[in-house]
Design goal:
The chain is α+β, with helices and mostly antiparallel strands and 241 residues long. It has two domains: 78 residues, no CATH class; 128 residues, Alpha-Beta Plaits. The protein is 25% helix and 26% strand. It contains seven helices and eight strands; from the N terminus they run ααββββαβαααββαβ. It has an eight-stranded antiparallel β-sheet with strand order 4-1-3-2-8-5-7-6. Bound molecules: protoporphyrin IX containing FE. Protoporphyrin IX containing FE binds next to strand 5, helix 6, strand 6, strand 7 and helix 7.
Length: 241
């Protein structure tokens, strides 16, 4: 899904990235045990950005579910696998956050990366149509963490590509919804083997496209590719004004 070009920060609260991060650190709430249960490795929990307000890794994004944050959770549906603990708010942070110590919630993290599946033709088509997340008019969002089964990961790259596009038309379906839906894909699998999901998929759009987004997700869930999804939680969010 997302390539490096999509790395614009997902401004959730109108604060600057730095004040966003600092403000968020003060009110982030996650149970230590729960964080461990979700496989948040302490080695990955960097604290403040290194210098000058720049994140340690500009491709790293952290999603924190809790009682505060720039996005209000309007629904949380477990599609398959274990649910996530119910939270009221989600904050999207560019970079890492310190380990929160109190309250209930979760932390998920992932990195944007290069494309694995796109052909040149598809890449060009995507670049011509897509928008980056964070448009001021996009007051609706979806955060859909996804894990794929061991059977998927045992396939070779060409076998995965065939399932992903030739059989499932993931890109062909998705292209129809651009630029109304903006997307950013975060990979978790290479951070640590114990990450609870393989991907954190993030989308934003204005209210008028909320029904279209439902259609898109429904179409993808009917595909061969989705038979390999063994954990999926669909969180729908509305920007806190
Ligand atoms: C908005 C329209 C969409 C477009 C244009 C789109 C496009 C893409 C593209 C091009 C990739 C492959 C990137 C690569 O080459 O590695 C991808 C991957 C992915 N997309 Fe989408 N997508 C869309 C919607 C969705 C939705 C709604 C979901 C979730 C419900 C989703 C979940 C994923 C996942 C999990 C991957 C990673 C697959 C893997 O590496 O195994 N996408 N998407």
């Amino acid at each position: 899904m997302s390539e490096d070009a999509d790395n614009a920060a997902f401004e959730s609260s109108g604060r600057s990235p730095e004040s966003n991060r600092r403000g968020f650190l003060a009110d982030a709430i996650v149970v230590g045990g729960l964080a461990a249960g979700l496989g948040v490795p302490s080695s990955l929990i960097a604290s403040e950005p290194a210098q000058g307000g720049r994140p340690v890794n500009p491709r790293l994004f952290t999603f924190v579910g809790g009682r505060s944050g720039g996005w209000s959770v309007v629904s949380a549906e477990t599609i398959i696998g274990d649910p996530l603990p119910v939270v009221e708010r989600v904050e999207v942070v560019a970079g890492a956050v310190s380990t929160p110590t109190a309250g209930e919630g979760w932390i998920l993290r992932g990195v944007t990366s290069n494309g694995r599946y796109v052909t040149r033709e598809e890449k060009v088509a995507l670049e011509q149509k897509q928008a980056a997340v964070g448009r001021p008019t996009s007051d609706h969002a979806a955060l859909i963490p996804i894990r794929k089964s061991a059977a998927w990961w045992a396939l070779t790259q060409d076998e995965r590509r065939e399932l992903f596009e030739e059989k499932s038309r993931h890109i062909a379906i998705g292209l129809k919804y651009l630029p109304a839906i903006a997307r950013r894909l975060h990979h978790c699998r290479d951070l640590n083997e114990s990450e609870p999901f393989d991907f954190l998929t993030l989308f934003d759009y204005s209210q008028e496209y909320a029904a279209a987004f439902d259609d898109l997700v429904a179409a993808l869930r009917e595909t061969e590719e989705w038979k390999f999804v063994d954990r999926e939680v669909d969180l729908r969010l509305v920007k806190v004004t």
